[in-house]
Amino acid sequence: MIYTITFNPAIDLVFQVNHLNIGQLNRVDNEDFVAGGKGINVSVLLKRFDKDNIATGFIGGFTGQFIISQLEKEGIKSAFIEADGITRVNCKIHSDSETEINGNGPIISEENFQKFLKFFKSELKENDYVFLSGNSAKGMTSDSYGQVAKLCQDMNVKLILDSNLDNLTSCLIYKPFIIKPNHHELGEIFNIKINTVKEIIYYAKKLQEYGAKNVLVSRGSHGAILVSQEGKVYESNVPSGNVINSVGAGDSMLAGFMAKYMEEENYKESLLQGAASGSATAFSTGIGQIKLIEELKKQITVKEIV
Fold first, then answer.
1. Which of 50, 52, 128, 251 is catalytic?
2. Its pTM surpasses 0.90
């Protein structure tokens, strides 16, 4: 089975505004309510690739129930732990530039987290896949991610990890199957500014020395670099298109990559699908649709560079 974990999901309230006037009344041209959070984004795209998965994490209140209902519409099963409080709402304003206002979400108690771990221990089976995406919720401790990562290692489960610097680096000792920093985050890990492909490859290999098996580095409009556990390095370009919403593009890249890898264990084809998936979401209001992903594949080239 495939599981996605979102500890602090959200409803993304997306406003399209022709011109945002700060301090004045603004009327929207269009609005969308989207079940958000990195793991939820992954769940949606996996399901569109016909990969059944279970979305889990923490939710609270009426906003949490909205997320469950949206997942049900996509045919996605959920197993969230109820927490006291209200699942957060994030406001995304797309105007002359993108403005984001993110909520906090409920505080997760130790009892909540232990209940989550108990559920996970009872459900996980060898060779399952676990996507651990996004950041901690309020109340969680610094070793929460490490506990999940260690459980995955103990159960021989493939861990797909996409989180902030601290969570990512603290989990490397548990040998995640793949991590996905962007090139800025990769530089932050080593406290440098990365400027070249050569530097990306060098520092991605450093992360492999620390425990990561595969390192997928997204580079925005410059494509992506994959340093694989088989010792090969692949580079993809990006297709042309109008960027509407960058939220969820990285999650879609990772989901698209893994959806193909689960079928073929082919890194080159997986990166091709991952790159198309990320771009499809960037060119859409919500998570990209399969039809657009297939169209964009025609514009993408993946080459082995090492």
1. 251
2. yes
